[in-house]
Each structure stands twice: as structure tokens, then as C-alpha cells.
Write a structure and sequence with these properties.
Number of helices: 15
Largest sheet: none
Number of strands: 0
Structural class: mainly alpha
Helix content: over 70%
Oligomer: single chain
Radius of gyration: 21 Å
Shape: globular
């Protein structure tokens, strides 16, 4: 019936609903991703594939390979990009990352940046170096995820505070918090010219009792 509606009415919602139920019942996630992509839900398909690959380990190697192949097909990368990424692997630099992103269409920028950072991680590039490169694109999702991972030194993030100080210092405070650096968390929040609700909420969720007391003494109210 789903396919009938696709062909006769151009409506794939019933088909996608069936495929989703099949996947949730233990079916093939890639089949569901392929159908999503086929019927105009490419961004959702890519997000689901990435989540399955990165956040639901352990995944069997054959499925990892199939998910990787799906992502490669869903987010194609020109040969010039692959050569540029290989150069970045050998010698990561802010200038090279800027050049790589300069002519990327805005609608593909986030996806391509994510692919570059994943390739650099696979090549053994440190989290601090990857953060510096991600910061070229501004304080977006990739920079935030790296800051919250606990693998990036707060000082590395603080060094970006010459632009948009409130944002970068807030991310540095998150990094200090997840690393258990209470004094650093307080210092960075106090140093920020303004406090963003998201940064305060993150610290509130991850702070222990002692850090909560220190923040209260410093006059920093948490949500």
C-alpha cells in the first residue's frame, strides 16, 4: 500500500512509517536510511547513520563498513577535497582549513566540516588540534561537541576568545567542568563578558556539590 501511494499520489509517508517500524523491530538500519534519502529525508538519513555508527557501539565491522559507504554516498566529496584532507592529515593548519572551507556551499559546510574532522580523528590528529581547526568555522556544533568531550584543554578554547569572547569562554568553562577543574570553571565563567544560558545549564548538569558551592560564593547563579 505504501508503494501504491508513492506511485499514485507521490506520498511516501506510509512507506517510510512501515520502514521505520521494521527498523525499530530489529531490521536493517541502512535500508531505512536509504529509503529516507530516496524520498527527500537525506539530512535525517545521514544523522541516523552517524548516530548508529558513532553512538551505539559496539557495531560489527561489516555494518561499520556499510554505514561508512552509505555516508560517503550520501555526502559526496570531490577529489580535490580528498587531496586537501590528506594534506591536512600530514600537516594540520588553520590556514589550510580556511582554504578548504572557503568555496564550500553554505548548505554543505556543516556536513563537509564533520567529514574533515572525522578523517583527521581517524588519522590520529589530537583533539586540541581538531578543535583549533573546527574553530575556523566558528563556535558551531563540532566545536561544541569537542569542547564537551573532555579531551580538549580549556586553554586551547580560551585562546579563541579574541573573537566572540562570551561564546568561547563559555565553551572553555564547559571543558573545564567535564575535566573536573572547578577553579578553572569558575574563573572562565567570571571572565566571560556575558553568560549564555546554555553554558550555565551545562555546568549545572555536570557540577558536583563542591563546584555548586564555589559558583554560589562567586555570585554565579545556575538555573
Amino acid at each position: 500500500l505504501g508503494w501504491v501511494e508513492v506511485f499514485e499520489q507521490g506520498d511516501a509517508s506510509r512507506l517510510l512509517h512501515v520502514e521505520r517500524r521494521r527498523w525499530l523491530a530489529g531490521g536493517d538500519v541502512i535500508r531505512y536510511c536509504e529509503q529516507l534519502r530516496r524520498f527527500g529525508e537525506g539530512e535525517l538519513a545521514v544523522a541516523l547513520a552517524r548516530t548508529t555508527l558513532a553512538r551505539l557501539p559496539p557495531v560489527e565491522p561489516p555494518l561499520q563498513e556499510r554505514l561508512g559507504a552509505f555516508l560517503t554516498a550520501a555526502v559526496p566529496m570531490p577529489g580535490s577535497w580528498r587531496r586537501a584532507i590528506d594534506a591536512l592529515r600530514r600537516e594540520p593548519s588553520r590556514e589550510a582549513m580556511k582554504a578548504l572551507l572557503r568555496f564550500t556551499p553554505p548548505e554543505r559546510r556543516a556536513a563537509q566540516l564533520r567529514l574533515v574532522l572525522e578523517a583527521l580523528e581517524d588519522a590520529g590528529v589530537s583533539a586540541d588540534e581538531r578543535f583549533v581547526l573546527a574553530a575556523v568555522a566558528g563556535p558551531g556544533e563540532e566545536a561544541t561537541l569537542l569542547a564537551e568531550s573532555g579531551f580538549v584543554a580549556p586553554a586551547t578554547i580560551e585562546a579563541e576568545a579574541h573573537t566572540d569572547a562570551a561564546c568561547w569562554l563559555g565553551l572553555a568553562a564547559r571543558a573545564a567542568c567535564v575535566r573536573g577543574d572547578r577553579l578553572g570553571t569558575v574563573r572562565l565563567l567570571r571572565k566571560a563578558p556575558s553568560l549564555r544560558p546554555g553554558d550555565l545549564a551545562f555546568v549545572a548538569d555536570h557540577a558536583d556539590r563542591e563546584l555548586h558551592r564555589m559558583l554560589q560564593r562567586a555570585g554565579l547563579s545556575l538555573p
